[in-house]
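From the shared-data thread, chain only:
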Amino acid sequence: MTSILICTFRNLPSTSENSYLLYSCRTLSVPPSCDSDYHSLQATQTKSKKTLAKPNIRNIVVVDGVRIPFLHSGTSYKDLMPHDLARAALTGLLHRTSVPKEVVDHLVFGTVIQEVKTSNIAKEAALGAGFSEKIPAHTVSMACISSNQAMTTGVGLIASGQCDVVVAGGVELMSDIPIRHSRKMRKMMLDLNKAKTMGQRLALISKFRLNFLAPELPAVAEFSTGETMGHSADRMAAAFAVSRLEQDEYALRSHSLAKKAQDEGLLSDVVPFKVPGKDTVTKDNGVRPSSLEQMAKLKPAFIKPYGTVTAANSSFLTDGASAVLIMAEEKALAMGYKPKAYMRDFLYVSQDPKDQLLLGPAYATPKVLEKAGLTMNDIDAFEFHEAFASQILSNFKAMDSDWFAQNYMGRKTKVGLPPLEKFNTWGGSLSLGHPFGATGCRLVMTAANRLQRNGGQYGLVAACAAGGQGHAMIVEAYPK
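Structure, as tokens:
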């Protein structure tokens, strides 16, 4: 597929895919001021839009959501455990919403790299935050869309009538990942534990070799292909003819918009976290607008020396946690809450993890719009996960290509491009950070908060994930 895409996209005329990206990327380094300019326009446009409520189906709402600051791994959270971060997010949610703990029917948390000591981290975090031991809690894992899965699991529990109130969230602590003994060493230790006589123990010990002590490090790579995600992002950039400059400009846009949102107090989902033995953390520490000149000095991170993916245009290893309060609408209103948004149609997709690893948004977006009966023009706020700048720009090109739609998606026409003035206008994973298990909740809450602030009605959340998977969801602003 890669060679086909390279030939096809490089030979396209300078319209559609190429012209939009060339134009938009040349202006990415200047943060658009349209976030405020769109207020009155969006309010006017959305008055006549239909609601996505369905007859005889429960309306499910997100009441509110929070996250502790997302930090570079190896910084303020490095001495903690994952459940400490998850507990902090749950505590922040309790303070933000004042929801009585006893009304919560179920807790679901997403995580990717499991801490062995707290395998069901949802339960441990819930107990630590003071929830009753009688409340069920379980943990899900779906790579970078783990908290997306946690939220939609909650939606399913409420839609089926099993629950009225669910807390969903996600957590990742990249500062401390489990490192195992080698398989040979593990086997020897297990056999020694079973040995009953000194002779059996000595016989086992005699088989010991120094190479047994070599540790097994977790690989940030696809098990099925052995390829790292960064390597896939580099190949994707080549396949879709996304230049190094375009990637750097998009990354600079993300950091610039995130800094603007931080300074203006727009990231209201962030709650302070007093780190035990350290200072209180109040904001994400990965937001660092630079310059194209400085970014250009960095060497390729994965495919050397000719790759285009660098540390500056990739998301960084991040520690963090998030949590949202999801309710049946009638329950929320009965308790006196004013929800942020309805959680509407959603779906998951999966493609070839070798050549289409990061194209989840391109596949999921047209499907979820079709399911909801909407078009790209109906969406007022786009919130896509930014794994790499090359990933975002490649998805843009795929979404704006009739050829790609026809040959890879079985669709007659392209879905089209999300307008940049509506796209990740408060920054994204490239700048805010990406704790694997926690990003999905951030995306949903940012979309909901943007809709509330700007007067829009529909938001579209989308993300890619390892295994070639992807997720998309429509959120609808709750009427004021």
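The chain has one domain: 58-177+224-477.
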